[in-house]
TrEMBL record:
Similarity field: Belongs to the class I-like SAM-binding methyltransferase superfamily. RNA M5U methyltransferase family.
Record InterPro entries: MeTrfase_TrmA_AS (IPR030390), SAM-dependent_MTases_sf (IPR029063), TrmA_MeTrfase (IPR011869), U5_MeTrfase_fam (IPR010280)
Protein name per its UniProtKB record: tRNA (Uracil-5-)-methyltransferase
Listed GO MF terms: rRNA binding; tRNA (uracil(54)-C5)-methyltransferase activity, S-adenosyl methionine-dependent; tRNA binding
Species whose genome carries this gene: SAR86 cluster bacterium
CDD domains: AdoMet_MTases
Annotated GO CC locations: cytosol
Alphabetically ordered keywords of this record: Methyltransferase, S-adenosyl-L-methionine, Transferase, tRNA processing
Lineage: Bacteria, Pseudomonadati, Pseudomonadota, Gammaproteobacteria, SAR86 cluster
């Protein structure tokens, strides 16, 4: 059985309506790619853990594919650029701007910084230079994108939804799931991919995220977009549980849970899913928007939320030709 048949077989135990599948083109869909560097090539591993040596990558966005061979050529013809280089990461955006991160296992010299500046100008890309306890960037540490009409920001080491074709469809689907909104609690909000577009629908949003870089990106976006009803808090999901138990956090910046009238909670956890403690606080809400990148942990968590039914659900083929599926769903009290 393919991944969709496997998903239907499992979901049919919990949901009987037809589920729409949002497909992606099978190439040129990735806004974000990470590679090793070895033997004058980009490297990555296949499913059997065999190392692959690449000059280009057909799944990367066209803007990334365009620059990959030129960047590799320039690196390979410079002993200083290639020495102790072990990782090359790419990010792109809706305007086809490119951010490249070069990561080294050595101290960074002024000569290397100058070479990277020249390389940045030659290829018209922003390059971030990293080694242990060191970072340097040729223009900015932030890559700016547009979601709906909102400016959003990412750095080279925070999460960003990878599929350029499905991102806006996922956001639209979440917006369509909202009925009778008051305030929203969001866990794992990241850089605000869903938070910012949802600010039009809710009176207030408490947006929680433990990653420092993602939190800085969200704050920068709030300032740029002049949004006042989103309250970012750099706290983890475990700390949100403590918050509901009455613990005070300075990182709440004076806001208390009692100042919110939550109608919805949105969770977008890592592949490991939700902890039992987080699941317990979700039971305080009438509506749970659950976004998942792992059907196995999604079904596990939904089964622990026995008081809720799956009200709406769609799946998104974020990574074509792989076993991965992204789920966007609304759980409502029975």
């Amino acid at each position: 059985m393919n991944k969709f048949d496997l998903f239907y077989e499992e979901i049919s135990k919990r949901y009987l309506d037809i589920i729409h599948i949002n497909l992606s083109p099978s190439s040129s869909f990735r806004y974000r790619c990470e590679f090793g560097y070895k033997h004058n090539s980009y490297t990555m591993y296949d499913n059997q853990k065999n190392i692959l040596y690449l000059k280009n990558f057909k799944y990367a966005a066209n803007s990334i594919q365009k620059v990959m061979p030129d960047l590799l050529f320039e690196i390979n013809r410079s002993l200083d650029l290639k020495d102790k280089l072990f990782q090359i990461n790419f990010r792109s955006n809706d305007l086809n701007k490119i951010m490249v991160t070069l990561i080294y296992h050595k101290n960074i010299s002024n000569k290397l910084i100058d070479l990277v500046k020249s390389l940045s100008k030659l290829l018209n890309i922003n390059i971030i230079l990293r080694s242990k306890n060191f970072i340097n960037f040729t223009s900015s540490k932030f890559l700016e994108s547009t979601i709906d009409e909102y400016k959003v920001y990412q750095t080279d080491n925070c999460f960003y939804q990878p599929n350029k074709y499905l991102l806006n469809k996922m956001i639209t689907k979440v917006k369509q799931m909202i009925e009778f909104p008051n305030d929203l609690l969001e866990l794992y909000c990241g850089i605000g991919t869903f938070t910012l577009p949802l600010s039009k629908y809710f009176n207030q949003i408490l947006a929680t995220e433990s990653n420092r870089e993602a939190n800085k990106c969200l704050i920068k976006a709030l300032e740029k977009n002049q949004i006042k009803n989103i309250h970012p808090a750099r706290i983890s999901s475990d700390e949100v549980v403590m918050l509901f138990d009455g613990k005070k956090f300075n990182r709440m910046h004076g806001k208390s849970l009692s100042s919110f009238n939550f109608s919805h909670v949105l969770v977008d956890p890592p592949r490991s899913g939700l902890t039992k403690e987080v699941i317990q606080i979700l039971k305080e809400f009438k509506n749970i928007i659950y976004i998942s990148c792992n059907p196995k942990t999604y079904f596990r968590d939904v089964d622990l939320l026995k008081e809720y039914k799956i009200n709406k659900i769609e799946i998104f083929d974020q990574f074509p030709n792989t076993e991965h599926i992204e789920i966007v769903s609304l759980l409502s009290l029975r």
